[in-house]
Amino acid sequence: MTLPINQHALQPRPHTTPGVTLTPRRPAHPWREPLFHVGMGLVSLVWIAPLVFVAFVAFRTFTDITSNGLGSLPRSFSVDGFVTVFTDGLAGRAVWNSVIVTVSTVFFTLLFSSWAAFALSRFHIPWRRGVLLFMLAGNLLPPQILLIPVSRISESLGIADTLLALIIVQIAFGLGFYTFVLHGFMRSIPVEIFEAARVDGSGELSTYIRIVLPLCRPSLAALGALATTWVWNDLIWALTVLRTETKFPITAALLNIQGGFVSQWNVVAAGAMVAAVPTAIVFFMFQKHFVSGLAVGSNK
Amino acid sequence: MSQAASLASRGRARAGPDGTRHRRRLNRVPPLIWAFLLVPLVFEVAWVFWPALNSFYISLTKWNGAGDPRYIGLRNFQMLAADPIFIQALVNNVIWVIGFGGASVVIGMCLALALNKPRKGVGLYRSAIYLPMVFSLAVTGLFWRLLYQPDGAVNTFLGAIGLEGIERQWLADPSTALYAVLIAAVWRQCGYIMVLYLAGLKGVDPALEEAAAVDGANAWQRFWQIVMPQLRGVNSVVFAITVIDSLRTFDIVWAMTRGGPYNSTQLLSTYMYQTSFTVVNLGYGSAIAVVIFLFAILFIIGYLARSGKED
Description:
Chain A is mainly alpha-helical.
């Protein structure tokens, strides 16, 4: 099908503002607005329903689940599931491991990648675009190709089965992406700012600390929010590097909880909630940053 | 200080070859900046590229982890070609790419189009759809395991609307398990695809669409003829991301079915993991990893070419 478009109609119209109904001649259907809300309300409900269901299960008693069935509406309220998950399920330990791993990984990844991005975006490094794409390529590799050698290397360095190994490998694997995003942002900083800094006699280190880092705060926040959820959510690196269950971060520990409390669904659901809530908090606190960080790759 | 001068010269050097030559003296990179670059770079090479290269060598050996790997040439790859589980994992992965990619792109794009214009309630709806993507794939898998239990919410819901006939043990039935896992993964992915399309739609010129509307094009025509061509960049990014993600997919399958029942949810990544860390056949596992890499590399190069171009 072809459109009967006149050439003059393609001229941009100055009065156009995004978000305003595009067809002023045709009056909007009176049911359009309510229909939109009914439709989207339903979609949102469907999207939230699995969460609500798991939350219900987490707060039911074991006897309620066994006698009324997993799918029935809750007829009891208890926090037994959470108590069990934190005592017998060792979730407290696992959450603490996750916090250690996540905080140090996110901090060092952002630090290192801001260094690399600063060097690549503002200095005449030979083949710097090639270097940048090379680093990004590392992040795109399927992790499967690294698993066996990484577990071997961490064994030969004597750091196998330690949180340190898990932190190191996650920093290394993430660097490329964060460097790429920060590089794009740093290039958009006007050259004049750096010229002014030079005139004022500012060296590289102080330029980096006093100018680059403060200007990059929005993208560092976006990447920080993203990285926090990604590192917290990791499973495959933890399974590869760690052997001892007490060292597992919460995501990996969940699978043990699932195996150890078979058919005690309130405990399993409580464990899933414990693993999910921190990332949900990060998301609601930094939703704007989070979404803008995710959108970064799309316009490239 | 000549070192600091190189800071500013970067922007101008792109102006032309003359400017570059003229400033070469000023372009010396100070040692601190070399350190800034080399620390992360060496780190990544040591922990990402060097292990990756190792995998290629291990894939040419027979090795159970103890002792030295024994070089056997391409034998592992010949065995893969005749391995029914590997073939099944490959077929499942193809189904996964198409199902996971197709469903999440169609749903994510429709949601982005519906929620593009700012109006009352849009923020709330968007948040509801974004929320699942912050949960780990392992948590998502557990959530849906609960839903799919024989007396879980899915079957209870089907019973309530009179569809008892199709109730089943979704994850224990080899004919439905893969699709059951797929739905869980799509549930989580749609928010991400929606973010990408919402960002893409920001770049769509509203004047063009309005002009077409004035000329009588209906919404369907406007979408395909005006909006879609302007989303080409996003489409190719989404395509690359979907394929790369699909080849990596591990967590959600591991949390829900571990590849079972009867390998019906086995993907390349789960088969690789089982072979390497449960069976400890490291040469064979590496060969599967190399196959995954070879499938991914085309899309990785495509993605890099796009990323580098506009830079």
